[in-house]
Design a protein that fits this description.
Number of strands: 20
Largest sheet: 9 strands, antiparallel
Helix content: 25-40%
Number of helices: 10
CATH class of one domain: Alpha Beta
CATH superfamily of one domain: NAD(P)-binding Rossmann-like Domain
Strand content: 25-35%
Shape: globular
Radius of gyration: 21 Å
Strand order of the largest sheet: 13-12-9-10-11-14-19-17-16
Length: about 375
């Protein structure tokens, strides 16, 4: 009988559908997918069980003697970790998963190593001497949703009221951290935390923080500071995607997403490194150690993931489908994140992505030209 993988998921994502599920099949695992959205995950090659995946007790009750419990969801790391620990399976520390998700807990835990001003704009409020500008955002938010740069107390109050009209979960107001924005992609087996690589990130002009483009780059010299902060948080098992800035030789964490990078950068990284990345992550959760050989790009190559972003609300009436093309020495892949016929608002967040263009090639100039030609050859029409 094949070993069973309990995969805990919320909404359907390409990372799970086209990454982890095929990887589990290649590993010969029987997948039991626990979700609170069963219709979104229906498929012939898996068993789908409806479950309140935010409650670790429900996961435990629904998971029948699995060999591993795994989730790639921001919101479900702690309950999945608790369920795995209950069964004595390899898992992330649920406390570290909770700290990573809750930005107030993260800031408090890192205060002795890297103090960052943070306040609750609804509770005790933001003191008069706060170091404006501040970044106001949901304490456990994702995808740049409802994240704003505010320059004074009046703007803070206005943005808070604007957010409160849409949601009622806790907010946090943090010190704005200037500098060049990077990511750090890591994978750990509980004994070793390995750096897989890093991206430079371009974001939209303030007051918004839309991630427009990620470019593969060597980890900056200050990466050791980030690793020390991750160690303080207890991050060391499975995949982790950390966003940080570097300014005047100092690296400071923006947020820690204790799962694999998304928005198709996971597929880009797997292609670039030339390794079965999704399988490697699942193997760690099955109790295996990392391979002795560290993954590196197979040759000197450049890589970019660039989002196609909606500039207005409406209905997508025309757009390319998923495809891969070769443009000279550059491999270009496109995967939509909105389907033709989808109606959507303009959110000024990563939710405005229509799709992602991924390009890998020998040099930056060739990639820029290939992306420009791809955009010129296709159109995205919003009615």
């Amino acid at each position: 009988m094949a070993a069973s993988l309990c995969l805990v998921a919320g909404k359907a994502t390409d990372s799970v559908t086209y990454g982890f599920l095929p990887a589990a099949q290649r590993l010969g695992l029987d997948v039991v997918l626990l979700t609170d959205r069963p219709a979104a995950h229906a498929g012939a090659d898996r068993t789908v069980v409806e479950c309140d995946v935010t409650d670790f007790r429900e996961i435990i009750a629904c998971a029948a003697a699995p060999a591993a419990v795994f989730s790639n969801s921001d919101f479900l790391q702690a309950p999945a970790a608790l369920a795995a620990a209950y069964s004595g399976l390899p898992a992330k520390d649920w406390r570290a998963a909770t700290r990573a998700k809750n930005k107030s807990l993260m800031r408090g835990h890192l205060a002795g190593l890297d103090p960052v001003f943070a306040a609750d704009p609804d509770g005790n409020g933001v003191p008069d001497g706060a170091p404006y500008p501040l970044v106001l955002k949901p304490r456990e938010g994702v995808a740049s949703e409802d994240v704003f740069l505010v320059r004074d107390a009046r703007e803070l109050a206005a943005r808070r009221d604007e957010i409160r009209a849409r949601r009622d979960d806790p907010l946090i107001a943090e010190e704005y951290l200037p500098g060049a924005l990077h990511t750090l992609e890591t994978l750990g087996d509980g004994s070793e935390l390995r750096v897989l690589g890093s991206f430079r990130t371009r974001v939209s002009p303030p007051p918004y923080f839309i991630e427009e483009r990620l470019e593969w780059a060597p980890p900056p010299p200050e990466t050791g500071q980030v690793l020390a902060q991750l160690e303080r948080l207890g991050v060391g098992f499975g995949a982790c995607h950390t966003e940080f800035v570097v300014h005047e030789g100092r690296a400071r964490i923006i947020e820690v997403n204790y799962r694999l990078i998304g928005d198709h950068c996971d597929f880009l990284m797997a292609d670039l490194l030339g390794v079965p990345l999704f399988e490697q992550i699942l193997r760690v959760h099955l109790g295996e150690r990392l391979d002795a050989e560290r993954p590196r790009p197979r040759s000197r190559r450049h890589a970019v993931a660039e989002a196609v972003i909606a500039d207005r609300a409406g209905t997508l009436t025309g757009a390319p489908g998923p495809m891969e093309v070769t443009d000279g020495a550059v491999r270009v892949a496109y995967r939509p994140q909105r389907a033709v016929g989808d109606a959507f608002p303009l959110t000024r967040t990563n939710r405005d992505y229509l799709g992602t263009i991924r390009a890998i090639g020998p040099d930056a100039d060739g990639i820029e030209a290939a992306i420009a030609r791809f955009r010129a050859a296709h159109s995205w029409t919003i009615a």
